[in-house]
Amino acid sequence: MLSTTSPPNPLQQWNGSSFLLSSRIYFGISYNKGMNKKFTYYIYILTNKYNTTFYIGVTNSITKRLFEHRMEIMDGFTKKYKVKKLVYLEEYNDIKEAIAREKQLKNWHRDWKLNLIRKVNPEFKDMSVF
Q1: In this structure, is residue 33 part of a structural domain?
Q2: What is the C-alpha to C-alpha distance for residues 116 and 111, in angstroms, rounded to an integer?
Q3: 98 Cβ contact partners less than 8 Å away, ≥ 6 residues apart
Q4: How far apart are CA 36 and CA 8, in angstroms?
Q5: Shortest CA distance to 108 belongs to which of 54, 48, 49?
Q6: What is the pLDDT of residues 78-88, one digit of tens each?
Q7: 13 found inside a domain
């Protein structure tokens, strides 16, 4: 049965699992009662199992996006290089700030990116919940 306070979950049939991050966050989008929707944007860094290849992206739906990477739904860089492990995440309320940060990180040297990841995730463990 669908709730009237949250959107339908398109993944509810996937292994019977729900990717709700909390009762108010659905796929990285925070839903409030009424017409106001507050979006949260995420900058994320993925790597492969050897931590040798990195992908930097931006999304407003982190759980959905991680699912797409893991299931290799789209052809591209992450599918080709098996980049699926979330090792770094930043949260923004402004899409312009998020895009600017993504571009900044993409222009960084590899060592700078490694140091950034090591500050919050020194063992390069997968930070995702599924």
Answers
A1: no
A2: 9
A3: 41, 42, 43, 58, 90, 92
A4: 18
A5: 54
A6: 999 999 999 99
A7: no
